[in-house]
Amino acid sequence: MPDSVFTVTDLKSGYDDKPVLQGVDFEVRPGEILAITGRNGVGKSTLMKTLIGLIPVKEGTLHFRGEAVQHLPAHKRARLGIGYVPQGRDVFPRMTVSENLTVGAMAVRRPDPGDLQRIFEYFPILAEKLNQKAGVLSGGQQQQLAIARALVARPQLLLMDEPSEGIQPNVAQDIARIMLRLRQDMGLSIVLVEQNVDMICSVAERVYVMEKGRIVAKFEPEGRLEPDVLRGYLAI
Amino acid sequence: METGYLAFAMVMQFADAFAFLVLAACGLAIVFGMMGIVNLAHGEFIMCGAYVTVAAVHAGVPLPLAIAIGAIASALAGMVVEFACIRHLYGRPLDSIVLTWGISLVVTQTTLITLGSNMPSIGTPYGSFAVGPYSYSVYRLVLFGSALAVLAGLYIVFNWTRFGIAARATMQVPHMAAASGLDTRRIYSWTFAIGAGLAGLAGGLYAPTMTLVPTMGTSFMTEAFVTVVVGGADVILGTAPAAAILAIIKAGMTYWKGQLFGQIGLLIAVIVVIRILPKGISGFLTRQ
Protein backbone atom coordinates (compact mmCIF):
# COMPACT_ATOMS: atom_id res chain seq x y z
CA MET A 1 0.00 0.00 0.00
CA PRO A 2 2.26 2.76 -1.19
CA ASP A 3 -0.02 5.72 -0.56
CA SER A 4 -1.14 4.85 2.94
CA VAL A 5 0.92 5.37 6.09
CA PHE A 6 -1.67 3.83 8.30
CA THR A 7 -4.62 1.63 7.40
CA VAL A 8 -7.38 0.78 9.85
CA THR A 9 -9.70 -2.04 8.79
CA ASP A 10 -12.92 -3.03 10.52
CA LEU A 11 -11.52 -2.07 13.93
CA LYS A 12 -13.46 -3.20 16.97
CA SER A 13 -12.44 -2.63 20.57
CA GLY A 14 -13.75 -1.53 23.92
CA TYR A 15 -13.72 -2.41 27.57
CA ASP A 16 -14.41 -5.80 29.15
CA ASP A 17 -18.14 -6.03 28.67
CA LYS A 18 -18.75 -2.78 26.84
CA PRO A 19 -17.91 -2.69 23.14
CA VAL A 20 -17.12 0.86 22.00
CA LEU A 21 -15.72 0.73 18.48
CA GLN A 22 -18.05 -1.21 16.20
CA GLY A 23 -15.99 -1.46 13.03
CA VAL A 24 -13.96 1.59 12.03
CA ASP A 25 -12.21 1.87 8.67
CA PHE A 26 -9.95 4.61 7.39
CA GLU A 27 -6.54 5.23 5.99
CA VAL A 28 -4.03 8.00 6.49
CA ARG A 29 -1.96 9.18 3.53
CA PRO A 30 1.62 10.40 3.82
CA GLY A 31 1.81 14.00 4.98
CA GLU A 32 -1.89 14.24 5.55
CA ILE A 33 -3.82 15.66 8.48
CA LEU A 34 -7.00 13.63 8.94
CA ALA A 35 -9.46 14.96 11.49
CA ILE A 36 -11.93 12.77 13.34
CA THR A 37 -14.73 14.51 15.12
CA GLY A 38 -18.01 13.80 16.84
CA ARG A 39 -19.82 14.46 20.07
CA ASN A 40 -18.62 13.36 23.51
CA GLY A 41 -18.83 9.65 24.16
CA VAL A 42 -18.89 8.43 20.56
CA GLY A 43 -15.58 6.58 20.96
CA LYS A 44 -12.98 9.07 19.68
CA SER A 45 -10.57 8.68 22.59
CA THR A 46 -11.14 4.92 22.66
CA LEU A 47 -10.19 4.90 18.99
CA MET A 48 -6.94 6.76 19.71
CA LYS A 49 -6.07 4.50 22.65
CA THR A 50 -6.73 1.45 20.52
CA LEU A 51 -4.55 2.81 17.72
CA ILE A 52 -1.55 3.34 20.03
CA GLY A 53 -2.15 0.06 21.86
CA LEU A 54 -3.43 1.07 25.28
CA ILE A 55 -6.72 -0.75 24.63
CA PRO A 56 -6.48 -4.14 22.93
CA VAL A 57 -7.91 -4.67 19.46
CA LYS A 58 -10.81 -7.12 19.56
CA GLU A 59 -11.25 -7.50 15.82
CA GLY A 60 -9.89 -5.94 12.68
CA THR A 61 -6.40 -4.94 11.60
CA LEU A 62 -4.03 -2.00 11.82
CA HIS A 63 -1.28 -1.64 9.25
CA PHE A 64 1.48 0.88 9.83
CA ARG A 65 3.59 1.36 6.69
CA GLY A 66 2.50 -2.05 5.48
CA GLU A 67 3.23 -3.88 8.73
CA ALA A 68 0.43 -5.39 10.83
CA VAL A 69 0.67 -3.86 14.29
CA GLN A 70 -2.64 -4.78 15.95
CA HIS A 71 -0.98 -7.42 18.14
CA LEU A 72 1.95 -5.26 19.23
CA PRO A 73 1.99 -3.65 22.69
CA ALA A 74 2.02 0.14 22.91
CA HIS A 75 5.76 0.50 23.46
CA LYS A 76 6.53 -1.44 20.28
CA ARG A 77 4.13 0.66 18.22
CA ALA A 78 5.78 3.77 19.63
CA ARG A 79 9.22 2.45 18.67
CA LEU A 80 8.02 1.80 15.11
CA GLY A 81 7.17 5.48 14.74
CA ILE A 82 3.67 6.14 16.03
CA GLY A 83 3.55 9.13 18.37
CA TYR A 84 0.71 9.77 20.78
CA VAL A 85 -0.42 13.05 22.32
CA PRO A 86 -3.16 12.06 24.75
CA GLN A 87 -6.25 13.91 25.82
CA GLY A 88 -5.50 15.84 28.98
CA ARG A 89 -1.81 15.92 27.93
CA ASP A 90 -0.57 13.50 30.61
CA VAL A 91 2.91 14.93 30.95
CA PHE A 92 4.99 13.35 33.73
CA PRO A 93 4.10 15.96 36.38
CA ARG A 94 6.88 15.50 38.93
CA MET A 95 9.61 15.33 36.32
CA THR A 96 11.30 18.29 34.68
CA VAL A 97 10.60 19.38 31.13
CA SER A 98 14.01 18.06 30.19
CA GLU A 99 13.32 14.66 31.79
CA ASN A 100 9.95 14.46 30.02
CA LEU A 101 11.75 14.92 26.71
CA THR A 102 14.37 12.34 27.68
CA VAL A 103 11.60 9.80 28.21
CA GLY A 104 10.13 10.70 24.82
CA ALA A 105 13.49 10.11 23.15
CA MET A 106 13.82 6.63 24.69
CA ALA A 107 11.75 5.23 21.83
CA VAL A 108 14.62 5.87 19.41
CA ARG A 109 17.75 3.81 19.50
CA ARG A 110 20.24 6.54 18.76
CA PRO A 111 18.82 9.95 19.62
CA ASP A 112 20.26 12.85 17.64
CA PRO A 113 21.08 15.82 19.89
CA GLY A 114 20.09 18.11 17.01
CA ASP A 115 16.51 16.86 17.28
CA LEU A 116 15.99 18.72 20.51
CA GLN A 117 17.24 21.97 19.00
CA ARG A 118 14.86 21.59 16.07
CA ILE A 119 11.98 20.96 18.44
CA PHE A 120 12.81 24.06 20.46
CA GLU A 121 12.40 26.05 17.23
CA TYR A 122 8.74 25.04 17.27
CA PHE A 123 8.34 25.37 21.03
CA PRO A 124 10.80 28.03 22.27
CA ILE A 125 9.00 28.24 25.61
CA LEU A 126 10.14 24.72 26.49
CA ALA A 127 13.79 25.67 26.08
CA GLU A 128 13.29 28.36 28.71
CA LYS A 129 11.63 26.01 31.19
CA LEU A 130 13.87 22.95 30.84
CA ASN A 131 14.48 22.57 34.55
CA GLN A 132 10.95 23.24 35.76
CA LYS A 133 8.64 20.47 36.82
CA ALA A 134 6.11 19.73 34.09
CA GLY A 135 3.28 19.79 36.62
CA VAL A 136 3.68 23.55 37.22
CA LEU A 137 3.45 24.55 33.54
CA SER A 138 0.28 26.14 32.16
CA GLY A 139 -2.16 24.03 30.17
CA GLY A 140 -0.90 25.37 26.85
CA GLN A 141 2.72 24.76 27.83
CA GLN A 142 1.92 21.23 28.93
CA GLN A 143 0.23 20.66 25.58
CA GLN A 144 3.37 21.84 23.80
CA LEU A 145 5.46 19.58 26.00
CA ALA A 146 3.21 16.59 25.23
CA ILE A 147 3.63 17.25 21.49
CA ALA A 148 7.38 17.77 21.85
CA ARG A 149 7.69 14.56 23.88
CA ALA A 150 6.08 12.66 21.01
CA LEU A 151 8.20 14.43 18.38
CA VAL A 152 11.61 13.65 19.90
CA ALA A 153 10.90 10.00 19.05
CA ARG A 154 10.85 11.06 15.36
CA PRO A 155 7.44 9.57 14.57
CA GLN A 156 6.01 9.22 11.08
CA LEU A 157 2.47 9.29 12.37
CA LEU A 158 1.18 11.45 15.18
CA LEU A 159 -2.08 10.68 17.00
CA MET A 160 -3.39 13.84 18.68
CA ASP A 161 -6.38 13.64 21.00
CA GLU A 162 -8.16 16.99 21.49
CA PRO A 163 -5.10 19.23 21.63
CA SER A 164 -7.27 22.37 21.88
CA GLU A 165 -9.17 21.17 24.96
CA GLY A 166 -8.78 23.42 27.97
CA ILE A 167 -6.27 25.83 26.47
CA GLN A 168 -6.65 29.43 25.36
CA PRO A 169 -7.84 30.05 21.79
CA ASN A 170 -4.67 31.86 20.74
CA VAL A 171 -2.51 28.99 22.02
CA ALA A 172 -4.75 26.57 20.12
CA GLN A 173 -4.11 28.64 16.98
CA ASP A 174 -0.37 28.44 17.60
CA ILE A 175 -0.63 24.69 17.90
CA ALA A 176 -2.59 24.49 14.65
CA ARG A 177 0.14 26.52 12.89
CA ILE A 178 2.81 24.25 14.34
CA MET A 179 0.95 21.18 13.06
CA LEU A 180 1.02 22.61 9.54
CA ARG A 181 4.75 23.37 9.84
CA LEU A 182 5.49 19.88 11.14
CA ARG A 183 3.76 18.35 8.17
CA GLN A 184 5.66 20.62 5.83
CA ASP A 185 9.08 20.17 7.45
CA MET A 186 8.99 16.50 8.40
CA GLY A 187 6.32 15.04 6.15
CA LEU A 188 4.48 14.01 9.30
CA SER A 189 1.03 12.43 8.99
CA ILE A 190 -1.41 13.35 11.73
CA VAL A 191 -4.66 11.86 12.97
CA LEU A 192 -6.38 14.66 14.84
CA VAL A 193 -9.32 13.97 17.13
CA GLU A 194 -10.92 17.33 17.77
CA GLN A 195 -14.23 19.04 18.45
CA ASN A 196 -12.98 22.55 17.77
CA VAL A 197 -14.25 23.25 14.26
CA ASP A 198 -11.94 26.22 13.69
CA MET A 199 -8.90 24.12 14.48
CA ILE A 200 -10.11 21.29 12.25
CA CYS A 201 -10.75 23.59 9.33
CA SER A 202 -7.44 25.38 9.63
CA VAL A 203 -5.36 22.18 9.40
CA ALA A 204 -7.24 19.16 8.09
CA GLU A 205 -7.77 18.06 4.49
CA ARG A 206 -10.41 15.51 5.36
CA VAL A 207 -12.82 15.16 8.26
CA TYR A 208 -14.52 11.99 9.39
CA VAL A 209 -17.45 12.14 11.77
CA MET A 210 -17.97 9.42 14.38
CA GLU A 211 -21.18 8.36 16.04
CA LYS A 212 -21.74 5.34 18.31
CA GLY A 213 -18.41 3.75 17.53
CA ARG A 214 -18.64 4.09 13.75
CA ILE A 215 -17.63 6.59 11.12
CA VAL A 216 -20.91 7.92 9.81
CA ALA A 217 -19.86 10.76 7.51
CA LYS A 218 -16.82 11.80 5.50
CA PHE A 219 -16.00 15.31 4.36
CA GLU A 220 -13.40 15.15 1.62
CA PRO A 221 -13.75 18.47 -0.20
CA GLU A 222 -11.69 19.43 -3.22
CA GLY A 223 -10.83 22.81 -1.80
CA ARG A 224 -10.89 24.31 1.65
CA LEU A 225 -13.08 22.90 4.39
CA GLU A 226 -15.81 25.37 5.26
CA PRO A 227 -16.33 25.73 9.01
CA ASP A 228 -20.01 26.57 8.60
CA VAL A 229 -20.77 23.44 6.63
CA LEU A 230 -19.05 21.25 9.21
CA ARG A 231 -20.64 23.14 12.09
CA GLY A 232 -24.02 22.69 10.50
CA TYR A 233 -23.51 18.99 10.30
CA LEU A 234 -22.27 18.59 13.86
CA ALA A 235 -25.16 20.60 15.27
CA ILE A 236 -27.72 18.11 14.01
CA MET B 1 32.53 15.81 79.84
CA GLU B 2 29.91 13.42 81.20
CA THR B 3 27.16 15.05 79.10
CA GLY B 4 29.38 14.80 76.02
CA TYR B 5 29.63 11.04 76.43
CA LEU B 6 25.90 10.81 76.95
CA ALA B 7 25.22 12.93 73.88
CA PHE B 8 27.42 10.64 71.81
CA ALA B 9 25.55 7.64 73.16
CA MET B 10 22.29 9.31 72.08
CA VAL B 11 23.67 10.00 68.61
CA MET B 12 24.70 6.37 68.28
CA GLN B 13 21.25 5.30 69.44
CA PHE B 14 19.73 7.52 66.75
CA ALA B 15 22.14 6.21 64.10
CA ASP B 16 21.20 2.61 64.95
CA ALA B 17 17.51 3.31 64.68
CA PHE B 18 17.92 5.35 61.47
CA ALA B 19 20.01 2.66 59.79
CA PHE B 20 17.59 -0.08 60.75
CA LEU B 21 14.54 1.84 59.55
CA VAL B 22 16.12 2.85 56.24
CA LEU B 23 17.58 -0.55 55.43
CA ALA B 24 14.45 -2.43 56.48
CA ALA B 25 12.10 -0.10 54.59
CA CYS B 26 13.70 1.04 51.34
CA GLY B 27 13.00 -2.15 49.37
CA LEU B 28 9.41 -2.15 50.56
CA ALA B 29 9.08 1.55 49.75
CA ILE B 30 10.37 1.14 46.20
CA VAL B 31 8.03 -1.72 45.39
CA PHE B 32 5.09 0.09 46.95
CA GLY B 33 5.94 3.49 45.48
CA MET B 34 6.73 2.36 41.96
CA MET B 35 4.34 -0.53 41.53
CA GLY B 36 1.61 0.06 44.11
CA ILE B 37 2.22 -3.40 45.52
CA VAL B 38 2.26 -3.97 49.26
CA ASN B 39 4.78 -6.76 49.48
CA LEU B 40 4.04 -8.81 52.58
CA ALA B 41 6.82 -11.20 51.60
CA HIS B 42 9.36 -8.39 52.06
CA GLY B 43 10.51 -9.91 55.36
CA GLU B 44 11.20 -13.23 53.64
CA PHE B 45 13.47 -11.53 51.11
CA ILE B 46 15.32 -10.10 54.11
CA MET B 47 15.52 -13.60 55.60
CA CYS B 48 16.76 -14.97 52.27
CA GLY B 49 19.56 -12.38 52.18
CA ALA B 50 20.53 -13.18 55.78
CA TYR B 51 20.59 -16.95 55.26
CA VAL B 52 22.58 -16.77 52.04
CA THR B 53 25.05 -14.36 53.64
CA VAL B 54 25.60 -16.62 56.65
CA ALA B 55 25.87 -19.72 54.48
CA ALA B 56 28.48 -17.96 52.35
CA VAL B 57 30.46 -16.91 55.42
CA HIS B 58 30.38 -20.50 56.71
CA ALA B 59 31.72 -21.54 53.30
CA GLY B 60 34.70 -19.24 53.81
CA VAL B 61 33.62 -16.16 51.83
CA PRO B 62 34.66 -12.83 53.45
CA LEU B 63 31.70 -10.98 55.00
CA PRO B 64 31.37 -7.99 52.60
CA LEU B 65 31.35 -10.32 49.60
CA ALA B 66 28.94 -12.66 51.40
CA ILE B 67 26.52 -9.76 51.96
CA ALA B 68 26.70 -8.88 48.27
CA ILE B 69 25.96 -12.51 47.37
CA GLY B 70 23.00 -12.46 49.78
CA ALA B 71 21.60 -9.30 48.18
CA ILE B 72 22.01 -10.70 44.66
CA ALA B 73 20.38 -13.99 45.68
CA SER B 74 17.38 -12.08 47.02
CA ALA B 75 17.18 -9.99 43.85
CA LEU B 76 17.15 -13.13 41.72
CA ALA B 77 14.50 -14.67 43.97
CA GLY B 78 12.53 -11.43 43.52
CA MET B 79 12.79 -11.69 39.76
CA VAL B 80 11.47 -15.26 39.83
CA VAL B 81 8.58 -14.32 42.14
CA GLU B 82 7.72 -11.32 39.95
CA PHE B 83 7.75 -13.42 36.80
CA ALA B 84 5.80 -16.32 38.27
CA CYS B 85 3.28 -14.51 40.45
CA ILE B 86 3.32 -10.73 40.84
CA ARG B 87 3.02 -9.73 37.19
CA HIS B 88 -0.30 -11.51 36.86
CA LEU B 89 -1.80 -9.28 39.52
CA TYR B 90 -0.79 -5.76 38.42
CA GLY B 91 -3.64 -3.37 39.04
CA ARG B 92 -5.14 -5.69 41.67
CA PRO B 93 -3.55 -4.39 44.89
CA LEU B 94 -5.71 -6.37 47.34
CA ASP B 95 -5.10 -9.63 45.53
CA SER B 96 -1.38 -8.97 45.53
CA ILE B 97 -1.45 -8.51 49.30
CA VAL B 98 -2.99 -11.96 49.72
CA LEU B 99 -0.53 -13.38 47.21
CA THR B 100 2.57 -11.98 48.90
CA TRP B 101 1.26 -12.99 52.32
CA GLY B 102 0.87 -16.52 51.01
CA ILE B 103 4.40 -16.47 49.61
CA SER B 104 5.62 -15.29 52.98
CA LEU B 105 3.96 -18.21 54.81
CA VAL B 106 5.15 -20.79 52.29
CA VAL B 107 8.74 -19.53 52.38
CA THR B 108 8.88 -19.34 56.18
CA GLN B 109 7.53 -22.86 56.66
CA THR B 110 9.64 -24.33 53.86
CA THR B 111 12.74 -22.83 55.45
CA LEU B 112 11.74 -24.23 58.81
CA ILE B 113 11.22 -27.72 57.38
CA THR B 114 14.34 -27.84 55.22
CA LEU B 115 16.87 -25.86 57.29
CA GLY B 116 15.55 -26.36 60.80
CA SER B 117 14.59 -23.85 63.44
CA ASN B 118 17.82 -21.91 63.45
CA MET B 119 21.18 -21.54 61.78
CA PRO B 120 24.54 -21.18 63.56
CA SER B 121 25.27 -17.45 63.67
CA ILE B 122 28.52 -15.81 62.65
CA GLY B 123 29.12 -13.17 65.30
CA THR B 124 29.63 -9.44 64.87
CA PRO B 125 32.95 -8.55 63.25
CA TYR B 126 35.33 -5.57 63.47
CA GLY B 127 35.60 -5.29 67.27
CA SER B 128 34.62 -2.24 69.26
CA PHE B 129 35.73 1.25 70.30
CA ALA B 130 35.20 3.24 73.48
CA VAL B 131 34.06 6.81 74.00
CA GLY B 132 34.45 7.68 77.65
CA PRO B 133 32.93 4.96 79.79
CA TYR B 134 30.84 3.54 76.93
CA SER B 135 31.92 0.96 74.41
CA TYR B 136 30.46 0.63 70.91
CA SER B 137 30.65 -2.02 68.23
CA VAL B 138 32.38 -0.71 65.09
CA TYR B 139 29.83 -2.64 63.06
CA ARG B 140 27.15 -0.16 64.15
CA LEU B 141 29.00 2.50 62.19
CA VAL B 142 29.16 0.15 59.22
CA LEU B 143 25.39 -0.23 59.34
CA PHE B 144 24.82 3.52 59.54
CA GLY B 145 27.25 4.13 56.69
CA SER B 146 25.50 1.45 54.63
CA ALA B 147 22.13 3.10 55.15
CA LEU B 148 23.52 6.43 53.93
CA ALA B 149 25.18 4.72 50.98
CA VAL B 150 21.92 3.00 49.99
CA LEU B 151 20.06 6.32 50.08
CA ALA B 152 22.76 8.03 48.03
CA GLY B 153 22.81 5.13 45.58
CA LEU B 154 19.03 5.24 45.13
CA TYR B 155 19.13 9.00 44.63
CA ILE B 156 21.73 8.60 41.89
CA VAL B 157 19.94 5.69 40.20
CA PHE B 158 16.52 7.34 40.16
CA ASN B 159 17.67 10.81 39.12
CA TRP B 160 20.71 10.36 36.95
CA THR B 161 20.34 7.09 35.09
CA ARG B 162 18.17 6.21 32.10
CA PHE B 163 16.61 3.38 34.06
CA GLY B 164 15.75 5.73 36.91
CA ILE B 165 14.11 8.30 34.64
CA ALA B 166 12.18 5.57 32.85
CA ALA B 167 11.12 4.08 36.20
CA ARG B 168 9.86 7.43 37.51
CA ALA B 169 7.95 8.06 34.29
CA THR B 170 6.37 4.62 34.60
CA MET B 171 5.40 5.34 38.18
CA GLN B 172 3.84 8.73 37.40
CA VAL B 173 1.86 8.03 34.20
CA PRO B 174 2.21 4.35 33.27
CA HIS B 175 0.16 4.46 30.06
CA MET B 176 2.15 7.40 28.68
CA ALA B 177 5.42 5.70 29.58
CA ALA B 178 4.28 2.76 27.45
CA ALA B 179 3.08 5.03 24.65
CA SER B 180 6.52 6.73 24.73
CA GLY B 181 8.21 3.43 23.92
CA LEU B 182 9.05 2.13 27.41
CA ASP B 183 8.59 -1.55 28.12
CA THR B 184 6.83 -1.00 31.42
CA ARG B 185 6.67 -4.74 32.21
CA ARG B 186 10.42 -4.98 32.14
CA ILE B 187 10.73 -1.87 34.26
CA TYR B 188 8.35 -3.34 36.87
CA SER B 189 10.28 -6.57 36.84
CA TRP B 190 13.60 -4.79 37.47
CA THR B 191 12.00 -2.58 40.10
CA PHE B 192 10.75 -5.61 42.00
CA ALA B 193 14.16 -7.23 41.74
CA ILE B 194 15.80 -4.08 43.12
CA GLY B 195 13.30 -4.00 46.01
CA ALA B 196 14.00 -7.65 46.80
CA GLY B 197 17.74 -7.08 46.44
CA LEU B 198 17.63 -4.20 48.93
CA ALA B 199 15.70 -6.43 51.34
CA GLY B 200 18.40 -9.08 50.91
CA LEU B 201 21.05 -6.43 51.54
CA ALA B 202 19.33 -5.48 54.80
CA GLY B 203 19.21 -9.15 55.79
CA GLY B 204 22.86 -9.67 54.94
CA LEU B 205 23.98 -6.56 56.81
CA TYR B 206 22.07 -7.49 59.97
CA ALA B 207 22.86 -11.21 59.77
CA PRO B 208 26.00 -10.92 61.97
CA THR B 209 24.01 -9.13 64.67
CA MET B 210 21.04 -11.45 65.07
CA THR B 211 19.94 -15.04 65.53
CA LEU B 212 18.90 -16.59 62.26
CA VAL B 213 15.44 -18.10 62.46
CA PRO B 214 12.95 -18.65 59.63
CA THR B 215 10.61 -16.01 61.05
CA MET B 216 13.30 -13.32 61.39
CA GLY B 217 11.66 -11.29 58.60
CA THR B 218 8.82 -10.29 60.88
CA SER B 219 11.19 -8.46 63.21
CA PHE B 220 11.94 -6.11 60.29
CA MET B 221 8.40 -5.83 59.00
CA THR B 222 6.87 -3.61 61.70
CA GLU B 223 9.63 -1.05 61.36
CA ALA B 224 9.58 -1.27 57.57
CA PHE B 225 5.83 -0.73 57.38
CA VAL B 226 5.82 2.10 59.87
CA THR B 227 8.52 3.88 57.88
CA VAL B 228 6.78 3.41 54.52
CA VAL B 229 3.41 4.53 55.89
CA VAL B 230 4.93 7.66 57.43
CA GLY B 231 7.15 8.35 54.43
CA GLY B 232 4.74 7.68 51.59
CA ALA B 233 5.53 6.51 48.11
CA ASP B 234 8.83 8.29 47.46
CA VAL B 235 12.05 6.76 48.80
CA ILE B 236 14.19 9.90 48.84
CA LEU B 237 11.52 12.42 49.84
CA GLY B 238 9.64 9.97 52.05
CA THR B 239 11.59 7.06 53.47
CA ALA B 240 14.68 9.07 54.37
CA PRO B 241 12.94 11.88 56.31
CA ALA B 242 10.46 9.43 57.85
CA ALA B 243 13.33 7.27 59.06
CA ALA B 244 15.06 10.33 60.52
CA ILE B 245 11.96 11.49 62.39
CA LEU B 246 11.04 8.02 63.58
CA ALA B 247 14.62 7.36 64.64
CA ILE B 248 14.50 10.41 66.89
CA ILE B 249 11.23 9.20 68.42
CA LYS B 250 12.46 5.66 68.82
CA ALA B 251 15.88 6.58 70.20
CA GLY B 252 14.35 9.15 72.54
CA MET B 253 11.66 6.82 73.86
CA THR B 254 14.10 3.93 74.17
CA TYR B 255 16.53 6.09 76.12
CA TRP B 256 13.72 7.34 78.35
CA LYS B 257 11.78 4.13 79.07
CA GLY B 258 13.44 1.23 77.24
CA GLN B 259 12.92 -0.85 74.07
CA LEU B 260 9.22 -1.46 74.52
CA PHE B 261 8.44 2.23 74.71
CA GLY B 262 10.59 2.81 71.63
CA GLN B 263 8.22 0.49 69.73
CA ILE B 264 5.15 2.11 71.22
CA GLY B 265 6.48 5.52 70.22
CA LEU B 266 6.79 4.36 66.59
CA LEU B 267 3.25 3.05 66.48
CA ILE B 268 1.80 6.20 67.99
CA ALA B 269 3.78 8.25 65.47
CA VAL B 270 2.20 6.28 62.60
CA ILE B 271 -1.31 6.82 63.90
CA VAL B 272 -0.71 10.55 64.21
CA VAL B 273 0.85 10.80 60.76
CA ILE B 274 -1.96 8.83 59.04
CA ARG B 275 -4.41 11.21 60.66
CA ILE B 276 -2.77 14.44 59.47
CA LEU B 277 -0.82 13.32 56.35
CA PRO B 278 -2.71 10.42 54.78
CA LYS B 279 -0.26 10.21 51.90
CA GLY B 280 2.79 10.39 54.13
CA ILE B 281 5.61 12.90 54.12
CA SER B 282 6.39 12.57 50.43
CA GLY B 283 2.72 12.91 49.51
CA PHE B 284 2.75 16.19 51.42
CA LEU B 285 6.01 17.40 49.86
CA THR B 286 4.96 16.61 46.26
CA ARG B 287 1.34 17.77 46.54
CA GLN B 288 0.02 19.86 43.65
From TrEMBL, chain A:
Q: Which domain of life is it from?
A: Bacteria
* SUPFAM superfamilies associated with the record: P-loop containing nucleoside triphosphate hydrolases
* Entry annotated with the keyword Nucleotide-binding: yes
Which organism was this protein described from?
Kaistia terrae
List, alphabetically, the CDD domains matched: ABC_TM1139_LivF_branched
**Which Gene3D superfamilies does UniProt cross-reference here?**
P-loop containing nucleotide triphosphate hydrolases (3.40.50.300)
Keyword annotations of the record: Amino-acid transport, ATP-binding, Nucleotide-binding, Transport
Membership in a protein family: Belongs to the ABC transporter superfamily.
Name of the featured protein: ABC transporter ATP-binding protein
Task: Give the GO molecular function terms.
Answer: ATP binding
All copies of the ABC transporter domain together span 6-236
Which InterPro entries does the annotation name? AAA+_ATPase, ABC_transporter-like_ATP-bd, BCAA_Transport_ATP-bd_LivF, P-loop_NTPase
TrEMBL record, chain B:
Record InterPro entries: ABC_transp_permease, BCAA_transport_permease
A matching Pfam family: BPD_transp_2
Keywords of this protein's UniProt record, alphabetized? Amino-acid transport, Cell membrane, Membrane, Transmembrane, Transmembrane helix, Transport
Transmembrane domains' residue ranges? 6-33, 65-86, 98-117, 137-158, 187-206, 226-248, 260-278
Q: Where in the cell is it found?
A: Cell membrane
**Membrane protein topology class:** Multi-pass membrane protein
Entry-linked CDD domains: TM_PBP1_LivH_like (cd06582)
Signal peptide annotation: none
Reading the lineage from the top rank, the first entry is: Bacteria
Which protein family is named in the record?
A: Belongs to the binding-protein-dependent transport system permease family. LivHM subfamily.
Q: What is this protein called?
A: Branched-chain amino acid ABC transporter permease
Per the UniProt record, the source organism is: Kaistia terrae
